[in-house]
Amino acid sequence: MDKLAVQLNFLRVFEHSRLGLQRLRTVLCDSILNDQLAPNLKLPKTVRKADLYVRAYRLLAGLIPYAKQSFSKSDQDEIVGAFQLGLTKWTQTARPCTHALLLCMYELPLSMVKHLAGTLDRMGRIMSTTAIAVHILEFLVSLIKTPNLWANFVEADYQRVFAIALRESIHPHPRETANASQSHFSPVAQNALAQYVIFLAYHTITLWFSSIRLSDRRKFVPYILRNLALANGTSRPIDERIEVCVDMLMRFSFANAEPKPQKSLVTRVMFDDAPAGQVLTKTWLQGNALLTIRVLKSSCWAEISIRRPTGTTVFLSRLENKFRGEDIDVVSVASIFMTGIEAPASNIAEDIQATPLHRHGRVGSDSNITSAASNTETTGGSESLRRSRTNPSSGRPFIRSTLTDGATKSSETTDGPVSSDSNEVRLLPDNAATSRALSVMDLTPLMDHFNVGVVYVGPGQTTEVEILQNTGGSAAYNEFLAGLGKFVKLKGRKDIYAGGLNTDDDIDGSEAVLWNEGGGQVIFHCATLMPNYEHDPNCTAKKRHIGNDFVLIVWNESGRPFGFRTIPSQFNFINIIIEPVDARYSSGTEGSRRTPDNTYFRLMTQRREDMPEFGPVSEPKLVSAISIPALVRHLAITADVFSQLFQKQGDGTTLEEWVSNWRTRLRDIKRVREQSQPGHTVPSRQGSVANVVSPSQLPNTSSGAGPRGLYNGQSQMDQLDVVLDFTRNT
């Protein structure tokens, strides 16, 4: 069975054996679905029946590439149904069946749609261990990137997904931790895998929650928060990862706004270009948010910025009330255009329109601050704009009312899982320390960044220099790059993460491949897109980027196996190898008969010798040309995260966690809180920890005399749930 599974990777061998393939599929599916796999076979004592089923599932997985051309739709359904059954058949079959179902997700999508609800239900019933949890979570992360499969999900389906992710969301499995010495993994590998599972759990929650229809998201908030509270327990402070997750829920529950604001023309003209001393700035701290209000002294305009761990929100507000005895110059949008700066009116309206914020951004009916997009006046022209900037005496009542009302707005926008001390609205001093804190937060990216190397290995090439000198590849390779991400021009692009590539000129090439997804941005260092130089015959400039990448994608058309150390680097942990099953398919000589749907490539991974097995293609898989870009991109991102975690563990004596940019911003805010407390020693950025509420510090629940408050009569877990649930008053 093992040898036949390997032979199935050679498509040309079985290209004209359709009848034999159909018989093999029938025997395997009937035996598995009816639990009749070799019923009369006497097995040696060293071989268990579960081992026989594992080999049968691997053999069945080898038939997936033949399914589109050789099997009917009902046959394909049976294949997926057999894998679904194997999730809970034996402990040993859960992993190969999960990998096979992930492949079916790309290759047999219609059959996966039919069996998806049952698949998620069985995944939720598998006894959770790190060894299987990592593969199930990778399946969920990959599933969210194929929206055609879950387009008809209902509330129960989403709840199944969240249930699986929440189960793994906080700490490694205690049973495995207790038996760590008996594990076949090294301490470094155990720590890396445990942290990788936690990363995948929170990543799954973020991706799936932000993909739900906006009007339905808040339905799931209490369920997620309740389970996060249960996972955290009642004996420890709230985990930073939970705080970041709650902040993410707050940001995405009521809006789909991008995490980073784009400065409008109004902001640039009125505030950034204002004369010195004409802009008054104040910053408040409350909970896990910094609220900054900038007021143009001589006008009715104010900019309100809310910096949170998961994003920054900016509102441009304008006072509509007229003050008694005050001659206020009203700056209108029309006056901006009269300065001679051109900008589409529709863009300006979009940029300055105030978004309803419900719980965390609602403007009360008695507020003096209203939307800049409403009732704007068109009189005054550029002269009005000039007077409004140069008259420091006008508008003072507006400044006072705005800054006072800002504290109220802050309390509405920063509800979160914090203690009563940290939930206090605190005005920060207007000094260099506050300015530095705001600058640090603004410089911290709002997305996690990943670098992945990509090289093309041409026919007969074996050395590093030969490979790096390639400035192009085959047609199949070029199609792969086009599907891997978006080609972007590098010169002058300061708004993207370039991964060290030069954006001032074209030293590292004029283009790069970029991909954005769910809080992350990936830059692909493609050697074929970088120029060669006569003064650099060894391609040191290219190696400078690719050699620092943890993950390397290798498109191998050399006709020979690619050695892991072909392009040596101390940072190279994982290689993702793509090879054409038949050289003719890659070169395009049979292009008239071959399409992306029936052209297949062999996909496999190589890892450093001290790393554990990783990902769904630790064993070679055949993947169609149409599916391979998305699958490889998924593998590259998760492999990069796992490699970083593996490197961080050092000798394995301490457990190093994944610290996302969102978590870094959370720590920045906490450090500002500690710094603003008189006499408090300010910790370093790496070591700051919040004074968040511990469940044990919640109010006493004993039934004593006195008025019945919010927490009276509730368990500690119920109280923690109330602290976390920001939707309770919305």
Automatic annotation (TrEMBL):
<feature type="compositionally biased region" description="Polar residues">
    <location>
        <begin position="675"/>
        <end position="704"/>
    </location>
</feature>
<dbReference type="InterPro" id="IPR035974">
    <property type="entry name" value="Rap/Ran-GAP_sf"/>
</dbReference>
<dbReference type="GO" id="GO:0032007">
    <property type="term" value="P:negative regulation of TOR signaling"/>
</dbReference>
<dbReference type="InterPro" id="IPR018515">
    <property type="entry name" value="Tuberin-type_domain"/>
</dbReference>
<dbReference type="Pfam" id="PF02145">
    <property type="entry name" value="Rap_GAP"/>
</dbReference>
<dbReference type="GO" id="GO:0005634">
    <property type="term" value="C:nucleus"/>
</dbReference>
<dbReference type="GO" id="GO:0033596">
    <property type="term" value="C:TSC1-TSC2 complex"/>
</dbReference>
<feature type="region of interest" description="Disordered">
    <location>
        <begin position="673"/>
        <end position="713"/>
    </location>
</feature>
<feature type="compositionally biased region" description="Polar residues">
    <location>
        <begin position="401"/>
        <end position="422"/>
    </location>
</feature>
<feature type="compositionally biased region" description="Polar residues">
    <location>
        <begin position="365"/>
        <end position="382"/>
    </location>
</feature>
<protein>
    <recommendedName>
        <fullName>Rap-GAP domain-containing protein</fullName>
    </recommendedName>
</protein>
<feature type="region of interest" description="Disordered">
    <location>
        <begin position="359"/>
        <end position="428"/>
    </location>
</feature>
<feature type="domain" description="Rap-GAP">
    <location>
        <begin position="438"/>
        <end position="680"/>
    </location>
</feature>
<dbReference type="GO" id="GO:0005096">
    <property type="term" value="F:GTPase activator activity"/>
</dbReference>
<dbReference type="InterPro" id="IPR027107">
    <property type="entry name" value="Tuberin/Ral-act_asu"/>
</dbReference>
<keyword id="KW-0343">GTPase activation</keyword>
<dbReference type="Pfam" id="PF03542">
    <property type="entry name" value="Tuberin"/>
</dbReference>
<dbReference type="InterPro" id="IPR000331">
    <property type="entry name" value="Rap/Ran_GAP_dom"/>
</dbReference>
<dbReference type="GO" id="GO:0051056">
    <property type="term" value="P:regulation of small GTPase mediated signal transduction"/>
</dbReference>
